[in-house]
Specification:
Layout lengths: L2 H15 L3 H20 L2 H11 L3 H11 L10 H27 L4 H8 L4 H8 L3 H19 L4 H30 L5
Helix pairs in contact: 2-3, 2-4, 2-9, 5-6, 5-7, 7-8, 8-9
């Protein structure tokens, strides 16, 4: 694909989809929920709510997209479609792992969810032409792994707080970096 076509697709996705800001806002709420559930209920019960909560991310993302006036689907834009299909594929492909861990190793569920639910962010970095999403994923994976293994008594408190913080930071940074990106690409939006 010629670079100018790629840039046009990225610009369109950035204008209409606003770098999927609604999904990151939904992620913030989801991880607040995970933090509350994992600290207020016994693990045997919390794991069911944690897995079930996954199904509420998408409707929340659509709601937040409406609030931010973003098109969460960017239909007709191959970049937006690639990001969407990749995200849904990661969720679908990781779900058997999530179920397996929830049943047989529930104490690791929070770590596994924190890592698996950001694997597609690298595609977003390429698709949107910005490092923010890949950095979010890399930092998240490294830090939650360190927390999980070094602070076992605090992992259910610190991991959700940290991941929620990353989501909130991403929501705050998206408009700032997107505006800068528009300037670098000489786009009026």
């Amino acid at each position: 694909m010629p670079e100018n076509n790629l840039t046009k697709l990225r610009v369109d996705a950035a204008i209409r989809g606003k770098w999927n800001i609604g999904f990151f806002a939904a992620g913030f709420i989801f991880w607040i929920f995970i933090g509350i559930i994992s600290n207020c209920m016994p693990l045997e019960k919390a794991r069911t709510y944690m897995v079930t909560g996954t199904f509420f991310i998408f409707p929340l993302a659509v709601l937040f997209s409406k609030i931010f006036k973003a098109d969460p689907f960017t239909k007709g834009n191959s970049i937006g479609e690639l990001v969407g299909y990749t995200h849904m594929s990661i969720i679908a492909l990781s779900f058997p792992i999530i179920i397996l861990v929830a049943i047989y190793l529930p104490s690791a569920l929070i770590l596994v969810m924190a890592i698996l639910y950001c694997l597609d962010f690298y595609v977003m970095s390429w698709g949107f032409g910005n490092k923010l999403f890949g950095i979010h994923s890399a930092v998240r994976t490294i830090v939650v792994t360190i927390i999980y293994f070094t602070l076992p008594n605090l992992r259910n408190i610190i991991i959700p707080i940290f991941v929620a913080f990353l989501y909130l930071s991403t929501v705050i940074l998206i408009p700032i970096l997107r505006k800068k990106w528009f300037g670098q690409n000489k786009v009026d939006y």
